[in-house]
Amino acid sequence: EGARDVKSDADNSIYLVMEYFDRSLEDLLRKPSLITQEIADKIFYELSCALDFLRTANVVHRDIKPSSIQLTADYRVKLCDLGMTCISTPNTIRSVDNMSKDEISEELNQTILKRREAAENMSHLTTTRPYRSPEVILLEEYDFAIDIWAAGCTMYEVFAACSHQKEKPKVLFSTVNSYDSSSSAEANQPHLRSILHTLGFQTREDLGFISNPLSLVFLQSQQKAIQKQKMRQYLPNTP
């Protein structure tokens, strides 16, 4: 459904005729009184479907934000701004049944090489700043999860607009605006701390999925200075 037509002129310039959208999600957020719970739920569903489609194609969008989400008149979502997309190499190898040791070794070596090449091609100059995930901020390897993070930040704004309906909602992690992509991971840790304070105190069960011992030590050290709070305070009127 992308290009509707292809035209050229005497100068051999090529023009792609694309589907027309008269507004983006960013435009809609400037008029929060128009966003009902039903509309917010539909945008959430449509965006989730779009991200699932990209995931099945091993594509990471890397720049999910309100202005990259176009809306039809009936609030169907169309993702645009695909200039930063990249292909993510699946972290899987074929079955080792009936394979010799040499074949298994070669398969593993090829998988490692593919992952290294993919990591080299995945720049950390991704995602508009307030929507950057912790792994991008810390200059670590990332995957489809960064799109989910950015989509979550985006949908917060949609549900906040639905909840308050007075003025354009603020971005959830606005302090990440000052993120410096040229800095070291250590220099950018204050932005991670800002995210942690916004999310609030995390219990041991909340941190149970973390397998990296150094990451766990860092997060636990930050918990001492974080107040217990609930995300509900940011969206008081949302079901």
TrEMBL record:
Question: Protein kinase domain: which residues?
Answer: 1-239
List the PROSITE patterns.
PROTEIN_KINASE_DOM
Q: What is the lineage of its organism?
A: Eukaryota, Sar, Alveolata, Ciliophora, Intramacronucleata
MF terms in GO: ATP binding; protein kinase activity
Enumerate the UniProt keywords alphabetically. Answer: ATP-binding, Nucleotide-binding
The name this protein carries in UniProt is: Protein kinase domain-containing protein
Listed Pfam families: Pkinase
To which species is this protein native? Strombidium inclinatum
